[in-house]
């Protein structure tokens, strides 16, 4: 008899069940047949994730760009190592063919590799030494925004999910991800990728659950500095856009492109430093 | 700026002690009187002439390249805060006026301006920059009359920088493919821009120049306290032959701004002003997909380490908080002094403050002019009165202040604690709060202990420490061993609740472009 894996949450580098003790059934695409039981994350799970995210963010941002780059590359390696598991999931849960499922993994791996290479370059591409009119050394560098909440699309696209997470990680931010309805079971293998890539615990948190339940606690959370809203629901986008004004969260609307510098820059702040030149 | 420092130094020596005004005449007739030790030199008035400007009785709205009367038929009185004298009336634009202006901007965007080459757009902006330079005196005098800032600041800072912003951005207009490496960019459309009263022309330049360089058209609402230089800028646009509708200027109060923000055909809103209003605007457009940049309030820390060049740091503190009467969003309003040098810093600061000249903004020797308008003076006084009850040590410079007009002598609160209202809330006036720290780590924690994140100052002769602290501060602009420096090539803007987006430099173009 087959042992069925329970999909738990990924918070602070650990795999807890939801504190609420609730779960829901994730069925195979287009059927009533259960693929796995998933945790239904609560408000407290979200808050615990933000807390962990906040604690781990400065350490992640202060790692050298080269090290961040290597850790993202490691994610590509670990995804390759778990290819069979991902393919199995996409075939069984989503009804993909073998080649389709493999292609999904290929694209996700390529996305990890793409962003890995940007960790030590976006600063040079979008930083600046500014020629001010006076004897000053003046330069602008990008810095992490802080804790970002990513609200994933309901339509599942593995490479896009990886893209959305990496665009946040590259700049030294940490992320709390609310997975979409399409394939929340991806949490299990994906969390293991992050867990085994030398990424500090808490930098990536993955939650499954009901967006309608959690959405009310995201916009007004004062430690969340930005929201990447990749879900299709425009009503929730506008609701969060208004709710996020209290601490002036950066609200990043759904985008259609992938693997792009501007996606990284959505989650950085430009810091400009002046210093006089002279004796 | 250098000129300012030079004159200040002279004063430190000559007017260390006050109150001997009666000797003024004696000291001037140098041929017959000998100089005696301890004699005090008073500055004679050195007023700038206002003859270069003519204030109209009535100012209309600038829409679609023409001056038009407001639909409401309503006008508001404008006042010189230094003298409380009238500066004519200006029009109050309402929803209909805003609609006309947005339509004109849309027409220009879809038409001539939108189709124009970057090269030609740039040439118009270069023209505007040149005309601003040529009419600099006129603008400086008008700015000072309208807003009460010292003529030496409007003459040496506001106007030259405004012209420089147009000049800098002009050059970008035909080089937009270099803004975002590897990406194509395009303009956004009609921009609704709302600016504050503290740097009226400069803020107009910060808003209009990058928007136009990127190919957008604008509807600008100046602050109701200081509409005159923006309206004169409209004249400059006419003089430059700028196609009609590209720049529209609609004066008015809050409702005029709200109408602009709410207008359906505005693609992007840019606002500089208070955090409260910024949040209101953000809320108003929350249900839309309008783009938004906000440059809001601040409570910037100015950190003095024991190993700083203390005398330079004192000048930095003065410039940080008392520049433009403290009406500066990035003012260094929280002074953090390393404990071991606290006493000497405060002693020197008091001495330096006593030599500041507060008074007629039109006087070329004036350091601190008039508070921009009456309501702001009332607000500052209320906050000072409230802070006095809080237990911090209050000190106000013993300087003469004119009886007529709105003035507030520079002051500070010493031995504040991080929870004090005067430490947490933006005053937007010449009021400094002082706290101490022991280690760089503590300085960083205290500096970051605010919802704002606009700017910060660091004073230390140790380079590695400066860079460490600069890295730890959550602020968009860090001035190390200097303060309140601005340049069109240098991005400006804040973290956290100080807003989002940058103005100036290559980064300042991004909010006015869409990346394809």
Throw out a few tags for this protein:
heterodimer, A: 279 residues, alpha/beta, Aldehyde Dehydrogenase, Chain A, domain 1, three-stranded antiparallel beta sheet, 10 helices, globular, B: 516 residues, Aldehyde Dehydrogenase, Chain A, domain 2, seven-stranded mixed beta sheet, six-stranded mixed beta sheet, 38% helix
Describe the fold and architecture.
The complex is a heterodimer of chains A (279) and B (516). In chain A, the strands form three sheets. In chain A, strands 7-6-5-8-9 form a five-stranded parallel β-sheet, with helices on both faces. Chain A has a three-stranded antiparallel β-sheet with strand order 3-4-10. Chain A has a two-stranded antiparallel sheet with strand order 1-2. Chain A has one domain (38-276): Aldehyde Dehydrogenase, Chain A, domain 1, CATH 3.40.605.10. Chain A has 279 residues and is of the alpha/beta class. Chain A has ten helices and ten strands. Chain A is globular, with a radius of gyration of 19 Å. Chain A has helices spanning 43-62, 65-81, 83-94, 98-118, 122-126, 158-170, 187-195, 211-214, 234-243, 261-265, and strands spanning 23-27, 34-39, 128-129, 136-144, 147-151, 174-178, 204-207, 224-229, 250-252, 268-276. Chain B contains 17 helices and 20 strands. Chain B is globular, with a radius of gyration of 23 Å. In chain B, the strands form five sheets. In chain B, strands 14-15-16-13-12-17-18 form a seven-stranded mixed β-sheet, with helices on both faces. The two termini of chain B are 41 Å apart. Chain B folds into three domains: 15-44, no CATH class; 58-296, Aldehyde Dehydrogenase, Chain A, domain 1 (3-Layer(aba) Sandwich); 301-480, 3-Layer(aba) Sandwich (Aldehyde Dehydrogenase, Chain A, domain 2). By secondary structure, chain B is of the alpha/beta class. In chain B, helix 7 packs parallel to helix 8 (200-213). Chain B has helices at 2-14, 24-28, 95-110, 112-115, 118-134, 136-147, 151-172, 200-213, 228-239, 254-262, 275-284, 310-322, 342-354, 374-388, 421-424, 440-448, 463-472; strands at residues 58-59, 61-63, 66-68, 75-79, 86-91, 185-187, 190-194, 217-221, 247-249, 268-272, 291-295, 301-304, 334-338, 393-396, 411-414, 431-437, 455-459, 477-480, 499-500, 513-515. The interface between A and B is large, with 34 and 46 residues.
């Amino acid at each position: 008899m087959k042992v069925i894996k329970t999909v738990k949450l990924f918070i602070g580098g650990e795999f807890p069940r939801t504190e609420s003790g609730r779960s829901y059934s994730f069925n195979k695409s287009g059927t009533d047949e259960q693929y796995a039981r998933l945790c239904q994350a609560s408000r407290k799970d979200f808050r615990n994730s933000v807390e962990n995210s906040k604690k781990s963010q400065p350490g992640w941002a202060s790692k050298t760009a080269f090290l961040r780059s290597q850790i993202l590359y490691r994610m590509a390696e670990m995804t390759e190592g778990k290819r069979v598991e991902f393919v199995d999931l996409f075939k069984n849960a989503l009804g993909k063919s073998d080649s389709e499922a493999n292609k999904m993994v290929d694209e996700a791996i390529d996305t990890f590799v793409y962003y890995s290479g940007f960790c030590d370059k976006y600063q040079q591409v979008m930083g600046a030494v500014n020629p001010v009119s006076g004897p000053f050394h003046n330069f602008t560098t990008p810095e992490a925004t802080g804790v970002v909440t990513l609200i994933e699309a309901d339509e599942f696209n593995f490479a896009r999910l990886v893209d959305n997470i990496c665009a946040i990680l590259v700049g030294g931010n940490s992320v709390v991800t609310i997975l979409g309805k399409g394939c929340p079971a991806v949490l299990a293998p994906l969390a293991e990728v992050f867990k085994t890539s030398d990424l500090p615990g808490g930098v990536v948190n993955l939650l499954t659950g009901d967006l309608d339940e959690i959405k009310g606690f995201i916009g007004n959370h004062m430690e969340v500095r930005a929201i990447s809203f990749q879900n299709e629901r425009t009503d929730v986008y506008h609701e969060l856009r208004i709710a996020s004004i209290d601490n002036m969260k950066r609200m990043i609307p759904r985008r259609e492109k992938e693997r792009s510098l501007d996606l990284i820059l959505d989650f950085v702040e430009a810091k400009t430093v002046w210093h006089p030149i002279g004796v | 700026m250098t000129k300012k420092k030079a004159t200040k130094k002279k004063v430190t020596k000559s007017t260390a002690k006050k109150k001997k005004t009666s000797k003024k005449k004696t000291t001037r007739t140098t041929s017959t009187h000998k100089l005696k030790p301890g004699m005090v030199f008073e500055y004679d008035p050195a007023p700038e002439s206002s003859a270069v400007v003519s204030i109209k009785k009535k100012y209309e709205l600038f829409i679609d390249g023409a001056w038009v009367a407001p639909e409401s038929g309503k006008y508001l009185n404008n006042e010189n805060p230094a003298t409380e004298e009238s500066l004519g009336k200006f029009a109050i634009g309402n929803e209909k006026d805003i609609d006309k202006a947005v339509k004109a901007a849309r027409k220009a965007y879809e038409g001539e301006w939108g189709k124009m080459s970057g090269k030609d757009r740039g040439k118009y902006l270069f023209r505007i920059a040149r005309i601003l330079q040529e009419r600099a005196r006129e603008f400086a005098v008008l700015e000072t009359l309208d807003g009460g800032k010292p003529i030496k600041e409007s003459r040496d800072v506001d106007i030259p920088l405004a012209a420089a912003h147009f000049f800098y951005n002009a050059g970008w207009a035909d080089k937009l493919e270099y803004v975002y490496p590897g990406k194509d960019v395009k303009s956004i459309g009609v921009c609704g821009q709302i600016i504050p009263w503290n740097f009226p022309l400069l803020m107009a330049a910060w808003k209009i120049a990058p928007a136009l360089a990127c190919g957008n058209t604008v509807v600008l609402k100046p602050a109701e306290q200081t509409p005159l230089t923006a309206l004169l800028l409209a004249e400059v646009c006419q003089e430059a032959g700028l196609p009609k509708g590209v720049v529209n200027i609609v004066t008015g109060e809050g409702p005029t701004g709200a109408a602009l923000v709410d207008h359906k055909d505005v693609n992007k809103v840019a606002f500089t002003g208070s955090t409260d209003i910024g949040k209101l605007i953000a809320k108003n457009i929350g249900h839309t997909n309008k783009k938004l940049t906000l440059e809001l309030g601040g409570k910037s820390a100015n950190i003095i380490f024991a190993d700083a060049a203390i005398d330079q740091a004192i000048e930095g503190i003065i410039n940080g908080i008392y520049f433009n009467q403290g009406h500066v969003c990035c003012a260094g309003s929280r002074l953090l002094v390393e404990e071991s040098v606290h006493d000497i810093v405060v002693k020197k600061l008091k001495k330096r403050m006593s030599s500041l000249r507060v008074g007629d903004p039109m006087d070329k020797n004036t350091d601190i002019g008039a508070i921009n308008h009456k309501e702001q003076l009332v607000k500052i006084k209320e906050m000072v009165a409230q802070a006095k009850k809080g237990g911090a040590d209050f000190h106000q410079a013993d300087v003469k202040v004119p009886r007529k007009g709105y003035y507030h002598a520079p002051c500070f609160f010493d031995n504040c604690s991080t929870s004090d209202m005067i430490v947490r809330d933006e005053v937007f006036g010449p009021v400094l709060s002082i706290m101490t720290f022991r280690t760089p780590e503590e300085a960083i924690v205290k500096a970051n202990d605010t919802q704002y994140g606009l700017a910060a100052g660091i004073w230390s002769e140790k380079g590695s420490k400066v860079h460490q602290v600069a890295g730890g501060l959550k602020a968009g602009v860090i001035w190390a061993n200097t303060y309140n420096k601005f340049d069109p090539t240098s991005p400006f803007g804040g973290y956290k609740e100080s807003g989002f987006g940058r103005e100036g430099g290559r980064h300042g173009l991004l909010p006015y472009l869409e990346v394809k």
